[in-house]
Amino acid sequence: MERIVLITTGGTIEKTYDERTGELANRRSLVERMLQELRLEGAEVEVVELMHKDSLFMDEEDRRQVLETVRDATRRLGPRTADGGGLAGVVILHGTDTLAQTGRVLHDGLQPPRVAVVLTGAMRPFEMKRSDALQNLTESLFASRTLDPGVYCVAHGRALRFPGVEKDRESGTFVASPA
């Protein structure tokens, strides 16, 4: 069984609608509900609920916590071994507004990275119609097991390596930064 550590931080992907206030907010993690909808052959997912924040409210201390949580997972589980033991990869559910900032912190802080570390999010919450949440989560779990060690953003059918990733608000996805 290949092990994937899935770290939740909040963001649009996990926002829920409060009928009383009409507000979309990060109250709790929805990742277990999302995982129940997937068939993940040969993978064991360990969920770490780190925080429940809109990424616009994340600060440098929050990003340091994400970095330390990734470091802890790689120390605790060790790199993937030939027999499938150890850590295959890390996936981080993150808000899209500041995902690129966290990606840069991880890229700079994990030199050299021991596994693929994948950040993903959604432009529409999991609970809404036409959400990209489940697609991006599925792609990220797969990518974490197949990409070379490094820090990536995976969304909408693409894997982009850090540094050099930014959110394109006009197209509603992530793109490679112009050189």
How does this structure look, described?
- This protein has 179 residues and is of the alpha/beta class.
- The protein has a single domain, classed as Rossmann fold (3-Layer(aba) Sandwich).
- Helix content is 27%, strand content 31%.
- The chain is built from 4 helices and 10 strands, in the order βββαβαβαβαββββ.
- It has helices at residues 31-36, 60-77, 99-109, 133-146; strands at 2-10, 16-18, 23-25, 43-53, 87-93, 116-120, 150-155, 158-161, 165-168, 173-176.
- The strands form 3 sheets. A 6-stranded mixed beta sheet has the order 4-1-5-6-7-8, sandwiched between helices.
- Helix 3 (99-109) links the parallel strand 5 and strand 6.
- The longest helix is centred in the middle third of the chain and has 18 residues, at 60-77.
- The chain is globular, with a radius of gyration of 15 Å.
- It starts with a strand and ends with a strand.
- The mean pLDDT is 89.
Shape: globular
Q: What is the CA-atom radius of gyration, in angstroms?
A: 15 Å
Biggest sheet details: 6 strands, mixed
State the CATH class.
Answer: Alpha Beta
The structural class is: alpha/beta
Strand content: 25-35%
Q: Please give the order of strands in the largest beta sheet.
A: 4-1-5-6-7-8
Termini gap: 39 Å
The helix count comes to 4
Q: Give the total of domains.
A: 1
According to CATH, the fold-level topology is Rossmann fold
What low-confidence regions span 5 or more consecutive residues with pLDDT below 50?
A: none
The CATH fourth-level homologous superfamily: L-asparaginase, N-terminal domain
Helix content: 25-40%
Mean pLDDT: 89
CATH architecture: 3-Layer(aba) Sandwich
Order of helices and strands: EEEHEHEHEHEEEE
Number of strands: 10
